[in-house]
Amino acid sequence: MDKLISSKQNIQHVPESYILPPERRPGKVVIPSSKCIPVIDLRGNTDRQELVQRIMKACQDFGFFELTNHGIPEDLMHDVLKVAEEFIQLPVEDKANFYSDDPAKKCRLYSSIDHDQEKVHFWRDSLRLPCHPLEDFVEEWPNNPARFREVIGDYAVRVRELSLLLLDLIREGLGLESGYFEGDLSKTHMLNFNFYPPCPDPSLTLGLPKHSDPNLITVLNQGAIPGLQVLKDREWIAVEPIPNAFVVNIGHTLQVISNGMLRSGDHRAVTNAFVARTTIASFIHPSSEYQIQPANELINGCGIPLYRPFPYLEFIRNYIKDTRDGNPALKRYELSQA
């Protein structure tokens, strides 16, 4: 529990173990870029084909888009962040049962990314909760604050439904058969609650380093405090929060299934010196045993597979090591086109 950065009081200077090498530091606080990721109105566009085309273009060009008019109530978007903040503000003893250094523990409160294996730590604490099927896991979740299970449970069900809807629109854009992303391919659903306390010097550290997500699709509730940045053409673009909007990005798994038609976008989280920031990321994963490979429909005929098949669990284990070492996570699975 002493590793939680959110539990430390009156930090006047960034501890040495959090100071990144000069080449990895974000530098001075980035002024929001004039560029921005695409914004897509989910239910305001009545032309489904046009909606699919806009989502596909965003996923091809950026791997990211902001989603408005998505159907999840505004009060729930706020309540889920408030309940998460109430949890992290609890006394240490009230959170102790959930803290663990074991990455295999499903319901887990931890600090940074892989605290005991890292050379440098990141300015973030996180609570990870499995969410599907809800009845299998909800009793393992925190019950303090009193509303935690009710609010998070409602949110988890709704955001999973939204994620599957987005995957179906992407399926249509790729020309895959109906139901392609159902079943074991979208079996696992996790919520990550990310807590970024104020940092004495944001130019020295990061909340999360440059990375792409390993899963199928991520739906992020980033609240009202900026901090997410997306890499585009070697420039970091600050993703400015839009009220009641989600940030959506595709992961490495979907890049492989699309045979490179879609891209998993690099991103990072910067800190700030003034206010705490809380975000909630929803991750849709395949089952551990699922064999990831380019969809047959995209390689039959004249298509050439860009990636070899691999079990998802193997990929996750390599992803953790490759990301920690700064190596491209998909490199070892690429097929030579020579």
From TrEMBL:
GO terms for molecular function: 2-oxoglutarate-dependent dioxygenase activity; metal ion binding. Residues 186-286 form the Fe2OG dioxygenase domain. It comes from the Eukaryota. Keywords: Dioxygenase, Iron, Metal-binding, Oxidoreductase. It holds the Pfam family 2OG-FeII_Oxy. GO terms for biological process: coumarin biosynthetic process; defense response to oomycetes; response to molecule of fungal origin. PROSITE patterns: FE2OG_OXY. The keyword GTP-binding does not apply. It catalyses: salicylate + NADH + O2 + H(+) = 2,3-dihydroxybenzoate + NAD(+) + H2O. Its cofactor is L-ascorbate. The keyword Signal does not apply. InterPro entries: DIOX_N (IPR026992), IPNS-like_FE2OG_OXY (IPR044861), IPNS-like_sf (IPR027443), Oxoglu/Fe-dep_dioxygenase_dom (IPR005123), Plant_2OG-oxidoreductases (IPR050295). Belongs to the iron/ascorbate-dependent oxidoreductase family. This is Fe2OG dioxygenase domain-containing protein. It comes from Buddleja alternifolia. The lineage of its organism: Eukaryota, Viridiplantae, Streptophyta, Embryophyta, Tracheophyta.
